[in-house]
Specification:
Layout (H helix, E strand, L loop, with lengths): L10 E5 L31 H11 L11 E6 L2 H6 L7 H5 L2 E8 L12 E4 L21 E3 L6 E3 L37 E7 L10 E5 L13 E2 L2 E5 L10 E6 L11 E3 L2 E3 L3 H13 L1 E10 L2 E2 L6 E6 L9 E6 L5 E8 L1 E8 L3 E3 L4 E4 L12 E3 L2 E5 L3 E9 L10 E6 L5 E5 L1 E4 L5 E11 L2 E7 L2 E3 L2 E3 L2 E2 L5 E3 L13 E3 L2 E3 L8 E10 L6 E2 L4 E5 L8 E4 L5 E8 L1 E8 L6 E7 L4 E3 L3 E3 L4 E3 L5 E3 L15 H4 L12 E5 L4 E4 L14 E3 L5 E3 L13 E6 L2 E6 L6 E2 L11 E4 L8 E2 H6 L7 E4 L8 E4 L1 E2 L4 E6 L3 E6 L3 E3 L24 E9 L2 E10 L26 E9 L2 E5 L1 E4 L4 E10 L5 E10 L5 E7 L5 E3 L5 E5 L5 E11 L4
Parallel strand pairs: 1-2, 2-11, 14-22, 14-23, 24-34, 24-35, 36-43, 36-44, 63-66
Antiparallel strand pairs: 3-7, 4-5, 4-6, 5-9, 8-10, 10-11, 12-13, 14-15, 14-18, 16-17, 16-19, 19-21, 20-23, 24-28, 25-26, 25-29, 27-28, 29-32, 29-33, 30-31, 36-37, 36-40, 38-39, 38-41, 41-42, 42-61, 45-50, 46-49, 47-48, 47-49, 51-60, 52-59, 53-58, 54-55, 54-60, 56-57, 62-63, 62-68, 64-65, 64-67, ...
């Protein structure tokens, strides 16, 4: 049951002569004269008294002490308690009152001392009827110009009785044309404090809710407008844990307020304004009680635990909200305590029944003649049996607003007598529109129902459990449906929130080694720091152990920088992504030795994960980067590709002068090249890409990172290379696969030439560190190369024995039939040739099917190269694949080139797909005329002539009976 704050009493504190406690009244007093705590005990100016009142207002959850309710009024109170703003007042702080200044009665109207002060204006609930219902003690209460509907404060000075007119003056003053005889307030108010409220204003949110505080609100603001009081309420559960704190502060004495006299229909009326304020004050500070009887079908319901709710039907702040609940006793009676003064509609709930014409009842602190008790009202509630209804709705994703099918939904009435379950699906609504995420329950007994959904997972999303337990939905055939719904339907839709699982801890491990030793040895005692930014202190620091190992255990997952300091060496850093709940192993930090070794007399396609441009006393060139001082020996041995002119550039001409990030190079060094110093790490975009300009034709590019980069991938979650057209700056970045399909990329990514045993091209799907790659484009683009998860500032690669190269033979994108042809001569191998038949192919160039192949990197060293040489209009050149349509006779022509003399070259092939049974496939050696059936044989060997040769072959597919 909902806990109610029961406030059956409050404290009203009058301080009519507070200002005189300073030794002199009002502005003539001396701040700090004698100190506030030296005032007589029991006066509000005494600090001990203030602390007692503060304690009264403060709730205590341990002792279950409720918060108090307090009203303070009087002359010059805030001035005295703060010593004209020079000290703090614990009581005013608790009441959310801030002192600003004070002024003498009459002065705010531009009048003279002794002139009446008027406070504009109305008392909430003001009427000539009985029991006005306040939702606040006053409304629009400020000090203003004279107004016959204002609160009238009597002057402190004597006045002339039995005079006519509106104002009362000191007898020594010359009165105007008229004075006022309607005087009955006490003459106690000389000074009024100017105060303001501290906290959230009406309509705002915050722990302190100032219910009504009009300090400067007016249709015609006045320059001397001052606030006439502060009414504050601290909402339960925010600042006070157990109950709300309510307090009122009047900076004048209520005893000084005149009645209001007026004539209407020749009848003299004189509302007692002080009494009305006191009535509203007590009503607002205290709570009332509602008692009653539940009837079922007009008979007394002697049924226990029928739920009864009081819903506010008057107060602007709480209108339409449940303000109190109770359950009936065995005799069917109920009692709801702790209700604020207002008017309530009262509902009873029992499964299968509905409240009949819910009644309205007022609650205030006056004596109820029906109950004979203060603040107690009586109301009876009538239930009638009703037909079952329908409950339906839509369950959506809160983030996307989309309906969710397959969600298990359960409803149970509050008496736990009816429980129903279903699963959401795409169902038609009453208008016939199919809505995903719909659920429907039919034949639901009327009552209050709790709707629940358990924690639920679909795909990669997990949604938090849902319940409306604190605000059950009412199902009744008497409900008012939304437009277009049938009567008897109750619609209750809700959204599920994705449950964000806090990431688990991450663990990062690695080693630090010395490469000056052979083999490398661990470095003990190296200082290793884990940073989120090198400009901030480390998250944690550790030293390497006897094995040179370090570990950062149970750190938050995320992006980090690892910095290693070793005495006598330059610091090294690595960037690392540490996912939750796994161990992330960082490549070793290598001190000493070399960063990278390039073997001599081998054609290599290379790149670097650093940029070596700039000067350090002398230009940084390949000569000093590779530590090969003989500059002349490097000429013609290092080349870069000028994509704009589609020609090679030789060392030392730019860009073949040194390593540039994102570029690839061809090298054949005269001596071993050793890189000992790191260059500048590449700069990446905000979304983690290094950008390379791609030109029409062939482009020799490099991996700008010390880590593997995915060029393409079949896993949609992988971060892969992308590109956008330079002609469209706002173009969306597409994947390489999408670019191949659109004919923007017109070749595979060609790698190879990485070692003496890898002297040919091979199709690859990823870019390894230190290697170069060829790609052909049909349009100018921007290539976006993604930064890998683990990126080093110093490469961990050193001189190692060559490993076997993993190769994936090139296959055609042919949906009917295809063949890969591999050529091998000794240790030379070329498996980058494929042909096929496709329903999408034709005899000419087919974008996305016919893919280009670059010329050999060098013909000065032994090489083996296979290619189609097609002269398609606008697309001439060497091709690795040629896919055609299926006709009666289909044939292809390709060449095999090598500079090896008198050497056997073996062609092997394997097929995919199936040709019709009446088709034959033959390989024809155009030089010798030899022909083999490729359906029954999978290889053919020929011997080259002196100095090597280029031999042409033909593949012929024909139907049986045709040649």
């Amino acid at each position: 049951m909902r806990k109610q704050r029961i406030a059956d009493r409050c404290v009203i504190w009058f301080a009519p002569h507070c200002g005189q406690l300073n030794g002199n009244a009002g502005q003539n007093s001396t701040p700090g004269n004698g100190g506030v705590n030296n005032k007589g005990f029991g006066t509000i100016a005494n600090l001990t008294t203030q602390n007692l009142l503060v304690d009264y207002l403060t709730a205590d959850t341990k002792t279950k002490k409720e918060a108090g309710r307090l009203m303070v009024n009087g002359d010059d109170v805030a001035f005295t308690l703060t010593q004209d703003g020079n000290i703090a007042s614990p009581l005013l702080d608790k009441m959310k009152v801030a002192y600003e200044s004070h002024f003498e009665i009459g002065q705010e109207n531009g009048g003279v001392i002794g002139q009446r002060t008027e406070i504009n204006r109305s008392i909430e609930g003001e009427s000539n009827g009985l029991n006005p219902i306040p939702w606040a003690a006053w409304q629009n209460l400020w000090i203003d110009e004279p107004n016959p509907n204002s609160l009238q404060l009597a002057p402190y000075w004597a006045y002339v009785p039995f005079t006519s007119g509106r104002y009362v003056y000191h007898p020594r003053r010359t009165p105007p044309d008229y004075t006022d005889t309607r005087e009955d307030g006490a003459w106690t108010n000389l000074f009024i404090d100017s105060v303001k409220a501290v906290g959230a204003q009406p309509g705002q949110t915050g722990a302190v809710q100032l219910v009504w505080n009009y300090a400067t609100v007016s249709d015609t603001p006045k320059p001397n407008r001052e606030v006439a009081g502060v009414q504050a309420e601290v909402i339960p559960g925010l600042t006070e844990n157990t109950s709300s704190v309510k307090s009122l502060f009047f900076p004048f004495g209520l005893e000084g307020i005149h009645r209001w006299y007026y004539i209407s229909d020749n009848v003299i009326h004189s509302p007692n304004r002080p009494a009305q304020i006191m009535h509203n004050t007590i009503d607002w500070l205290t709570t009332g009680t509602m008692i009653g009887q539940v009837y079922i079908n007009n008979n007394v319901a002697k049924v226990k635990d029928i739920l009864v709710r009081a819903v506010d039907d008057y107060n602007q702040r709480y209108f339409g909200t449940v303000r109190g609940t109770a359950k009936t006793d065995a005799d069917g009676t109920f009692r709801i305590e702790g209700l604020d003064s207002s008017i309530y509609r009262v509902f009873a709930y029992r499964t299968g029944y509905a409240s009949q014409n819910p009644s309205r009842e007022a609650i205030n602190s006056g004596v109820n003649p029906l109950t004979g008790q203060d603040g107690t009202s009586m109301i009876n509630v009538y239930l009638i049996a009703v037909q079952p209804g329908t409950l339906r709705g839509v369950v959506t994703d809160k983030a996307t607003g989309l309906g969710l099918d397959g969600v298990p939904v359960t409803i149970q009435d509050i008496t736990a007598t009816t429980t129903l379950s279903t699963v959401t699906a795409s169902l038609p609504n009453p208008q016939g529109v199919v809505v995903p995420g719909s659920y429907i329950f039919t034949n639901v007994p009327a009552g209050l129902y709790v709707v629940t959904v358990p924690e639920w997972t679909v795909g990669e999303k997990t949604y938090a459990a849902y319940t409306n337990e604190t605000n059950p939905v009412s199902v009744t055939t008497d409900s008012y449906p939304a437009a277009g719904d049938w009567r008897g339907d109750t619609v209750f839709s809700f959204a599920l929130t994705e449950r964000v699982v806090p990431p688990g801890p991450a663990t990062i491990v690695g080693t630090v080694v010395n490469a000056d030793d052979d083999p490398s040895t661990p470095i003990v005692g190296a200082m290793v720091g884990l940073y989120t930014s090198l400009t901030l202190p480390p998250v944690v620091e550790v030293e390497t152990d006897d094995q040179g190992a370090y570990m950062f255990a149970d750190v938050p997952s995320g992006q980090y920088i690892i910095k290693v300091d070793v005495t006598g060496y330059k610091s090294q850093t690595k960037s690392v992504t540490a996912p939750p709940n796994v161990n992330t192993t960082v490549p070793p930090f290598v001190f000493g030795g070399v960063i990278k070794v390039f073997p001599p007399n081998v054609v290599l396609m290379v790149s670097a994960p650093y940029d070596y441009t700039g000067t350090t006393g002398s230009p940084i060139t390949f000569s000093n980067v590779l530590n090969i001082p003989d500059v002349e020996s490097l000429k013609t041995k290092i080349v870069a590709w000028n994509a704009a002119s589609q020609t090679f550039t030789f060392f030392p001409t730019y860009p073949a002068d040194t390593f540039h990030s994102g570029r690839g190079y061809g090298i054949k060094l005269p001596t071993e090249g050793r890189i000992r110093e790191q260059g500048t790490l590449p700069s990446v975009s905000s979304d983690g890409y290094y950008i390379v300009r791609g030109e029409i034709g062939w482009n020799l590019i490099g991996n700008p990172f010390d880590g593997t980069v995915l060029w393409t991938s079949t896993n949609p979650a992988d971060k892969v290379a992308r590109l956008s057209l330079r002609s469209d700056s706002s173009a969306t970045k597409m994947t390489i696969t999408q670019a191949l399909e659109r004919g923007i990329v017109v070749s595979p990514l060609w790698g190879g030439y990485t070692a003496s045993s890898d002297q040919s091209y091979r199709q690859v799907t990823q870019m390894d560190a230190w290697n170069g790659y060829w790609v052909k484009l049909s349009q100018p683009v921007l290539l976006y190369i993604p930064k890998p998860a683990v990126q080093s500032s110093v490469s961990v690669m050193t001189a190692k024995a060559e490993k076997p190269i993993a190769r994936t033979p090139l296959m055609p994108n042919a949906d009917v039939w295809g063949v890969n042809i591999t050529a091998q001569s000794g240790d030379l191998l070329d498996d980058g040739l494929a042909l096929g038949i496709s329903s999408k192919g034709n005899a000419g160039y087919d974008a996305g099917l016919d893919l280009g192949k670059p010329e050999p990197m060098s013909r000065e060293v032994p090489y083996l190269f296979t290619a189609f040489h097609n002269e398609w209009g606008g697309q001439p050149g060497c091709y690795a694949t040629d896919v055609r349509g299926y006709t009666a006779i289909t044939n292809w022509s390709f060449t095999v080139s090598t500079n090896k003399s008198a050497s056997p070259v073996k062609l092997t092939w394997f097929r995919t797909g199936t040709l019709p049974s009446n088709a034959t496939v033959r390989l024809v050696d155009q030089k010798t005329g030899a022909s083999v059936d490729m359906s029954t044989t999978n290889n053919y060997t020929f011997v080259t002539g002196q100095g090597g040769e280029t031999r042409t072959f033909r593949v012929l597919v024909s139907r049986k009976g045709r040649r």
